[in-house]
Design brief:
CATH architecture of the largest domain: Sandwich
Structural class: alpha+beta
Shape: globular
CATH superfamily of the largest domain: Jelly Rolls
Helix content: 40-55%
Radius of gyration: 18 Å
CATH class of the largest domain: Mainly Beta
Distance between the termini: 31 Å
CATH topology of the largest domain: Jelly Rolls
Number of strands: 12
Strand content: 15-25%
Strand order of the largest sheet: 1-8-3-6
Number of helices: 8
Length: 216
């Protein structure tokens, strides 16, 4: 994000009261209307749906400086998903009508928002391609790449440290925990990842991308 744009957004939302939510608290339930827009100061918020079997499917993760749910603010429709604090978070809430006025007065912010939306669309298309391949392995590799790009901590040896569990990976890829564990063992054998009790390390992003290209 452009630093000047980021500063303008931060300054705008700073006039609204900050609120803290603990990990696991719900911000918006499915079926709720969204009269307010949340600005994420710290932490992560996940957006997910629940299947008829009770499985959680994670659709998106918001990180600091994101503001949401803009689709509901713009279209004034009931919310179809659940927004939940994936970690302890701090947010600021602004009335949706005031946020829309702010956007109308600041076309540079709108352009930045569009850029974020299209990056998100690219991510969804990539996920769709991995899903249509029919391979659990390709779906898992895609999620590992996406997680590395968005939230991974780059290491000196060009690897990426991911603070994520196999359960959460499964929720992102639409796979059971057992399937994720099995496929992760295969990736470990191919020297693409390292797994320990606290995190996952993607050893070489380019090698993982090449492998994904061979699978899809």
């Amino acid at each position: 994000m452009n630093e000047a744009v980021n500063q303008k957004i931060e300054t705008y939302f700073s006039k609204y009261r900050a609120r803290k939510y603990e990990k696991g608290q719900i911000l918006i339930l499915d079926g709720d209307e969204a009269p307010n827009v949340f600005y994420l100061v710290s932490g992560k918020v996940k957006v997910y749906d629940v299947t008829y079997r009770g499985d959680e499917i994670i659709l998106n993760i918001f990180k600091p400086s994101a503001f949401f749910p803009m689709s509901l603010a713009l279209n004034k429709v009931p919310n179809p998903y659940i927004y939940e604090a994936e970690t302890d978070i701090e947010v600021r809430q602004a009335p949706a009508t005031e946020v829309l006025e702010f956007l109308n007065a600041n076309p540079d912010i709108v352009m930045d928002l569009l850029s974020r939306v299209y990056k998100g669309v690219d991510g969804l298309l990539g996920r769709m391609a991995a899903l249509m391949s029919g391979s659990a392995k390709s779906r898992l590799m895609y999620e590992l790449i996406l997680e590395s790009q968005r939230f991974g901590k780059s290491q000196d040896d060009n690897s990426y440290l991911l603070d994520i569990t196999e359960k959460d990976l499964g929720a992102r890829a639409g796979l059971s925990r057992e399937t994720v564990s099995r496929e992760m063992r295969k990736l470990k054998k191919e020297d693409l990842v390292t797994i320990n009790s606290h995190n996952i390390i993607v050893k070489n992003m380019e090698n993982l991308k090449i492998k994904l290209g061979q699978e899809v």
